[in-house]
Amino acid sequence: MATKGPDELEAQFEQWRGYVRRRRELAATDVEELEDHLRGSVAELTGLGLRPDEAFLVAVKRMGSLDELSREFAREHSERLWKQLVLSGGADTSAVARSRQDILVMLICATGAALSVKVPELFGQHIVSGPDETAAFYARNFALFGLPWLAAFLAWRRRARPAVIGALVGLFVAGAVAANVYRLADDSQSVVLTAVHLPIALWVVVGLAYVADEWRTSRRRMDFVRFSGEWFIYLVLMGLGGGVLMAFTVAIFNAIGIDQGDFVGGWLLPCGFMAAVVVAGWLVEVKQGVIENIAPVLTRLFTPLFAAVMLAFLVALLWTNHALDRNMLIIFNLLLVVVLGLLLYAISARDPLAPPGLFDRLQFGLVVSALLIDARVLVEITGRIGEWGTTPNRAAALGENLVLLVNLAWSAWLLLGLLRRRAPFVRLEHWQTAYLPVYALWATVVVVVFPPVFAYA
Fold first, then answer.
1. Alpha carbon of 28 to those of 89, 103, 107, 156: distances in Å?
2. Domain boundaries, the chain
């Protein structure tokens, strides 16, 4: 084996730094301290005669697992970490001031999101008492009330350049135009398709605000994948708490003869949800690894469970040769999306330096099962199109399953290469981050192209 030169060794250090930086409970100074310690160990070992690549691996092994290091840092700096969770970044006064600014900007953006959902009422679009076309309006524009404010908060956090801010404004304006430029009937399939696909396209715009000037780097795009998973967890938790709050609000006021249904449905629910979109993003930014430590555990718990369910379903489907109706196809598409989410988040939380193990094999089984189900769904959809013709819903389902098929197929191939030790993990990571714009592109096609192509049906 040829000795690795300085460039190869620095590439290993860069890969190690990329993983350490994902542990947000470690401040930048902590990462520098760890790297200094690692470099010192490598220098010591090379001085004893080891090759640089051997010295690097031995030094990393001596440091122990990163999770153990994280726990040590949490124990030694617990007061600092708990302050980081909500208010300060430590004893540094500039960090304290920045944290307070974060809270202020977050409150402004959350208030803006909450009020935005009420602005259409000034033009007769009442959430509670409006006609049927009002429901269609809010369905099409739902993502435009909260996501621009979340993007504004993230762009402020990243100190985004004017060019990035201009691109964000332009893309959100384009989304608003696409959602409202067509005169669609209330029962049009395009209304539902826009309501489903516009948030997907706009979430990638939020990703641009998150990565800011580093949008070309795979590492930052994977950071956004991790942010997305943690944001969703926080949003669900706040939704559960908000549901309890609304239930108690209605119950206690009804007990004294005051009906709060209009207030809850017209103000508390829509405004609270839109504000929560921004607050969840703020929590992910400042919590320094609290949910990050839980989410990979959930991923490892549900990956084998979903793999077992999908394998059992494949066996049952082959055994019974049961036809798939429309509702089943919808359920299977949702299942495929969940599988993709599990795959993405597991990739974002995996140690890129770790050798392939049992969990990677479980992931491979999950992806292969999803790939087979996707192929079966595609056969069913193409059969329906051939028998009954093309509709917006069928065309959208066909395209989405093709997009998922390509991703799952290549992911399965890369996972197989990883298990056989013929492909590094980083190739799988790069593939997923490079494929993210494809989802936004297809969602944009459905929102912008489908209505006129299908005569606004």
1. 11, 21, 26, 20
2. 6-76, 93-288, 289-457
Q: Degrees (nearest 5) of the Cα angle 102, 108, 113?
A: 120
Find, among 369, 368, 364, 361, the residue nearest to 316 by Cα: 369
Whole-number Cα distances in Å, 141 to 110, 112, 161: 18, 16, 27
- For the segment 148-173, what is each residue's pLDDT rounded down to a tens digit? 999 999 999 888 899 999 999 999 99
Q: In this structure, what is the dihedral angle of CA atoms 74, 77, 79, 82, given to the nearest 10 degrees?
A: -40
Helix 358-388 × helix 290-320 angle, to 10°: 50
| Cα dist from 386 to 381, 382, 401, whole Å | 9, 6, 17
- pLDDT tens, 422-441? 888 889 989 999 999 999 99
Q: How much is the pTM?
A: 0.75
Residues 6+ apart with CB under 8 A from 9: 42, 52, 53, 56
Q: Given this model, what pLDDT does residue 373 score?
A: 87
Question: For residue 95, what are its two tokens?
Answer: 């960090």
